[in-house]
Amino acid sequence: MKPIIALVLLARFLKAVVLSGIQTVQVILRASFGQRTPPPAAYLRVHFAPMSPMGASLLGCMITLTPGTTTLDIDMDKRIILMHVLDASDTDAIVQGIRDDFESGLVPLFGVRA
User: Fold this and answer.
1) CA–CA gap between residue 26 and residue 5 (Å, rounded)
2) How far apart are the C-alpha atoms of 104 and 112, rounded to whole Å?
């Protein structure tokens, strides 16, 4: 069962990378040629589900490898990831995307009891 979960997680990650890449290019083009004003960037603190340090590190890597987002710090004690986002127009959607696309696959593989 875990290999299937890992493959689904990989597919979700690849989809997120492609979609985020397109969105990042759109942000750059709008700021360069269109509106001439970049969208608001922000630092976000995102709570993550109980998981091993390896799972949290993998979550941080997946966030960083997705265009437009960067993991800056992982606090294992508080289960918080500090991240920077290029376009903070809809932070709720960003957080929900991380939960749906990444965390939902990592918890079955690396989850621990709280």
Assistant:
1) 32
2) 13
